[in-house]
Structures
1.
Amino acid sequence: MRVSLVFPIFNESACLPVLWDRITAVVASLAYDFELIFVDDGSTDGSFDILSAIAAADTRVKLLRFSRNFGHQIAITAGIDVADGDAVIVMDADLQDPPELIGEMLAKFEDGMDVVYAVRRDRQGETLFKKLSANVFYKILNWMSSTPIPLDTGDFRLMSRRVVAALSTMREQDRFVRGMVSWVGFNQCPVYFDRDPRVAGQTKYPFRKMVQFALNGIMSFSTVPLRWASWLGFVLSGAAGIYIIVVVGLRFTGHTFPGYASLMIAVLLLGGIQLMTVGILGGYVGRLVMESKKRPLYIVSETVGFE
């Protein structure tokens, strides 16, 4: 059976030697035909040179190099696109996803599972804020979305050939791969592990990217924010109508009073809510504009090992 390992790479030169040592040890211990696909997502730290040297020494290694940085989720997509294994396993290069879990994933696959996703029991080396924010994000997303996504999971997972074939038909620009895999369905099960700190380097998901990634996940799998905006508009319109009736009634009964403070509060409150709802609408409209352009998800500038 052929197994494809997919690694999205962005400025991971410090991690690659350690990753290669651990991956080759795991691959040597398993009786499968492996291919190792590295997707260089526009690295500027020499990662591509290290990977090219590895590919020259090992024919199992295949390498894609993007023309620029297209993003982590796009790099995963590109690796899945070119993988030809019966099973495809995606994992990050920082070794927070332990390669030693691959054997357990493949055992589940041989038992009939189409997706085997890795669930983090413990997350070492991460701040309390990141742990709490990730937990809150998944709970909110599952509350809003009709597609349940397991808590404490990342993109570290095994997928069968029919899952990969289904994903290949889904070409949306703003990608949330773990949600897309859940949406596809088929037989899915977890394996559990304790996540280690990064071997080297810095996280590629600072706070700004974490927020962007969370919003992308919510907008990809839920229209609840749009419904909230509509309901908020109805409620405020009703409240405004009642307030108008009260003000007119007070005016005709002779009760007048200065209203600058209440007027400013009402204007600022309604203005802020209007801007918020317009922003929600703009987020969804912007996604429609990007999808309508039909641009390719990524551009490959160089390949190694595919010939």
Note: The mean pLDDT is 78.
2.
Amino acid sequence: MAKRRHRKRYTGPDLTAHVDLGPGDHFEITLGEINDAGDTTAVTEGAPVVIAGGLPGEVVIAEVLKRFPERIAAKVVQVLQSAPERVEPECQYFLTCSGCQWQHVSYGHQLELKRNRVQREIDRYECLSHLEVDRTVESVKQLGYRNHGRFTIGKRDDAGQVGYVNAVTRQFLRIEECLLMDQPINDTLKLVQDRMDGQTQMSVRVGANTGSILVQPRMNISGLGVVTGEQHYDEKVRGARFRVAASSFFQVNTAQLSRAVDEVRELLDFDGSEVLIDAYCGVGVFSVLLAPYVRRVIGIEESASAIEDAELNSSGVENVEFIEGKTEVVLGTWPESWPGAAPGADIENGGMDALLLDPPRVGCHPDVLKSVKKLRPKKVLMVSCEPAAMARDLDLLCRDGVYRLEIVRPVDMFPQTRHVEVISLLTLQDSGDQDFGDNR
């Protein structure tokens, strides 16, 4: 699952005050490497510049968007010398919107850029750097894949209009159609456009395989044929139906989520005898879809609404159960917190053969990693949407030789953007002495 990160405020020296460039000014520049935010980097008059819409080695005319003390933010407005990986963006709002970073990049090169980013994070750590990251698993759809759209409602002169806010300039942009969205989201957008006066935000979630739709918040827009304020919608993944509460997390790319389930099953290589712990399990997608391949699945989730969904979604699946609680707390008292174990039970590997970790963007709580190293499940598989946090957590699990990193496989959940999902597999190297007493 993912949660928003708060950027740290820059407190260093002013690096751009001496440069005579302001918003709207144009300048010629040769572009350097792509940073983790998906922008190209460069230097002008000794000042750092980040330029959206470019590729390394290109010579471009850039327009200043905003000047910060630590950098000048700009966008490409004309390409004088183009890179071979450049393609024509399909979206009329590209670079004005800021939601997509790489619509100007060929899809094959997007996959390579994402793999390279993950490799850089892995290579930062000595005990991980032996591993070569796999090729990125491509998305079936490169456009029209998002099942969840979050929109901003304009104010003052833009009141009632639906759109996005540019991440750099903070300017509102009216949107008629977002090419990343599944069609029902764009259909809803057209119905409500110019009719949202009095609102500040709107979220639309759809079941790509069910036609179910959820529009939040509850609004008085009668006569448009749009039902708002419902608490759930339904989706199908690999033939299984999942109810998802308005407050619950669900992957935005349903087709690629199905691919990710296949990748996880392949990497864990079940023989049918295993007990699988699905930590941060959300509404139970992995728990339900992996249940046929193991003896037992135990999901852990702190969200009450997600647990309620998971219980419903696993109805009829006899070898799945769920524990409501924070993963760091549940694993910290394991196996006493396991419904199938008696207090004080001494069970090899804590009774878990495989542990699936799908933490929020910030990564695993430090106490989760401590518990993993104490409980020592035979296999640990991590699903992450933030490569830097993932690499940090993998290093903590591997640095003393208890675990070895075997596979890192990027999965492209977010085409046209810098974001990437990553699946990593670790195997236990040294079983050591087990102690499943109080490890809080």
Note: The radius of gyration is 24 Å.
3.
Amino acid sequence: MNILSIGGSDPSSGAGIQSDVKTFSSFNVHVLTVITAITGQNTTRFGMVEPVSKKMLEDQIQTVMSDFRIDGVKIGMVYNSQITRVIYQQLKKLKVPIIVDPIIKSTTGGTLLENSAIKDFQKFIVPLATIITPNEFEAKIISNTKINSKISPKKIAEKIQNMGSKTVVITGIKTKNNEISDFVLEKNKNYFITGKKITSTNHGSGDNYSAAAIFALVKNNNIEESLKFAKQFTQESIRNSKKIGKGIPITDIKKKDNIKIELTKAINEFVEIKNIFKNIPECQTNFVFSKQNPKSIKDILGISGRIVKAGKQVLVAGNLEYGGSKHVATALLVMNKKSSEVCSAINIKYQNDTITKIKNLKLIASNYDRSKEPKNTKIKKSSIKWGIEHAIKNSKKLPDIIFHEGDFGKEPMIIVFGKTPNDVLNKILKII
């Protein structure tokens, strides 16, 4: 994945291009950078700003875009009208997700968008945005709303959306119960994403949020999922803030296991599905996600216990561990050898109604008959490997779902496969 970050240089590495490099690197993304302006700043004060020339900006964008595939773009500090116009001309035909993070003032008080450039920002930058992510102050400036007014976030967001941005997110809205919310206005719906308020001033959280959001969006997550991921990531970076200099702490990104993050999120959503307990088999459920090109089940993350039902409740009993699953991980390992894109799987209860839904939805399904399993595979305890290979062989296309109707002492089962845990989850929501 290649993401282009366009913004200002911050020598303290608290925000700007340097912050984006840290964030995208933590996601194992190749980040391409275009500098719009050089700033002199640290954690205590803001110094000078010097925008790059029109020719230099054009050359940076053109040389990067002529050589690399661009999967997504993040636009941060643009500073003046000339820069906004150049960016618009260079990106207006680019058909990839673009997140605009309006940068008007730095945490240390510096002006990062000239007043004379606000109209051009509204005219040229806002319409480029798949998502625009201003805080309350920035949203009021962009929407021409008085700073002290008590107009609702929805009305402010609608003003910005009418300027051309597909989705508007107003971040950092203080709510009751020690919470802080982001208001989201998509094309046909609006909602809040709420989290606990972290009472500390920091440098870099806005950049962390917009960078995480474009990463998630490029990974084919929908807008709401991408923004939830970005909020979670940003809150973690704020909690990890470090007082490196003499002033404001800088957000810190700890190298994380993105496989674990993604699988954890999907498991949490799975157990919250209404009446999901009806789909948990007697042997219980496991949900797995593999590294790229797994060599064994030790390269596949799964629950060391199971997802279990307790009455009408569904609980996760165990921790996520590599090698934590044997049966579902083995099934995924076989499937991954046929297609390296398939990296996640879950098992659910076999039910005739589920099979009917699968067929009606035209998902590709294949099955195998456990009663026909050769004796030597039973002796070697390689039943799952044999079954999955058999089902793949009997299918014209690579299956989304493989099932069997059981055998003596063996419970019937459905296994759902996908590229990612979210892909698996979407298939589950369709068939249950």
Note: The CA atoms of residues 169 and 184 lie 5 Å apart.
4.
Amino acid sequence: MRTKATLKNISQSLNLSISTVSRALKNHPDISEETKQKVMELATLLEYEPNTHAINLRTNRSKIFGLIVPVISNYFYHSFIASVEEDARKLGYSLLILQSGDDPMIELENLKLCRLNRVAGVFVSITSLTKDIKPFLKLDEFDIPVIFFDKVPSFEACNKICLADAEAAALAAQAVIAKNKKMVLAIYGNAELSITQKRQKAFASTLSQSATGIQLLECYASTPEEAEKITREYCIMTNKPDTIFGMSDEILTGIMRSIQKMKLSVPGDIAIISICNNNFIPSLYEPTITYVETSGLDLGKLALKRMMDHLGGKTFVQELTVPSRLVEGGSL
């Protein structure tokens, strides 16, 4: 079995001190270019790898970010994670990706795991049942910044990176008004979440300002299956809605599953509009669903920028948002 290369091996082979070898590997300006080249060539030949555990112990910080989400399989979170990972890798960081299963106790276990691994920072989208964020804020004592994203605490002063939830819902409502719709079924997400509350309030408020007197029916669904059931219940009514608004990608999939099972035509029998991460889910259907985009990719880029700014000394609390835009399809 091949012996792992160490700084000591390299220093003995080149008759240099360990400190000189270490500084050469870090491209320190005090070390000559000739010496740096010799050290780098031998390190490459020996397949030298830094002892990251020792570095973490010495600096009390790793080059790893913790990232906690309710579920990794969620398409929006997949997009967010991919965005953060790509940009973090370019800066020399990697991700420790954890899922809470939307369980506050597992979320706390994940948080502890991040602390024990001396992560450089934590990105977290909290569970729908998380009430106390003191354990997150306590990480500041360990010099570990926390960036909340997407599902964020409602009132606490902390770093939040959000989608323009109210703007997105208002844009959807304006699109409905422009099409002269009369009865709208709005299916929102978990009623306990701030994201749901913001979208519900903005959507209902915007519709109420319409001079056409649109009737609004409101329901809540925590899963695509619940959204599917609600859609069927309302679409078999004699006086069924002429439009359905879905609050998210997941809810849209439930709505469309029900629409397809009932063989209803879109937008002939019923019109559809949703808030979505990007065009992936809307483009799966014919016609393409009209949607308001709330980009997980853009949210990830903004979240990482805020994290790096914090690590760079800008430690003041900020709440930043990613703007939304209406994307016309053929479903409305």
Note: Residues 7-50 form one domain.
